[in-house]
Amino acid sequence: MSSDDDEGGEEYLFKIVIIGDSAVGKSNLLSRYARNEFNAHSKATIGVEFQTQNMDIDGKDVKAQIWDTAGQERFRAVTSAYYRGAVGALVVYDISRRSTFESVARWLDELKIHSDTTVARMLVGNKCDLESIRAVSVEEGRALAEKEGLFFMETSALDSTNVKTAFEMVIRDIYTNVSRKQLSSNTYKTELSMKNRVSLVKDDSKSSTQGFGFSCCSSS
Ligand SMILES: Nc1nc2c(ncn2[C@@H]2O[C@H](COP(=O)(O)OP(=O)(O)O)[C@@H](O)[C@H]2O)c(=O)[nH]1
Ligand SMILES: [Mg+2]
């Protein structure tokens, strides 16, 4: 892993969380995006907490660390650690189950409570392949997103519609915000990279010194 203080060797790490009611397809959106896999019988997520995807933007190495709940949402018990350090979020509902759309406001509140920076947010109406049993119209989804100031997209983890696009829009938006702020403030860059290093370190106790070993703050 390279440090981000050398010119030309810049590296970004963005934490993105996926939230929304149980069984809306969060885990499948992530597995479709990260591994191009779909699981028709997926149980509540156990094990893997996040997947890292690399993207090249403007010649920069951008890593998105995308977090999936471990099924805690069934008990309304997503912890604050899950949200900590997140700079992006996909708020997912299922277009065939109206109750999951009605929960979106609550998820947005929770995100607001737990996040400390500006978060790039996208409202995602998943399972758009289920047109015949649709319970939330595209217009309703779009209107809510507009009202709350989120991006909006309907997706299908089953047939892959818009999955890559949704994740990449969020990642690009984060990148754009960060690079814009960097132009005006080097301090912000330092803060952000520290924050992200810390969030990485928290999940990987064996490398606990590594994050702080980066001389991310010493450049110029
Ligand atoms: N038809 C359809 N089913 C989906 C889609 N995404 C997920 N599912 C199914 O919905 C169920 C819940 O998916 P899962 O990813 O575990 O949801 P999570 O609880 O939000 O992580 C599973 O049976 C999936 O196969 C989709 O885009 N279309
Ligand atoms: Mg899941």
From TrEMBL:
Alphabetical list of SMART domains matching this protein: RAB, RAN, RAS, RHO
One Pfam family in the UniProt entry: Ras
Top-rank taxon: Eukaryota
Family statement: Belongs to the small GTPase superfamily. Rab family.
Name this polypeptide is given: Ras-related protein RABA5d-like
Protein source organism: Camelina sativa
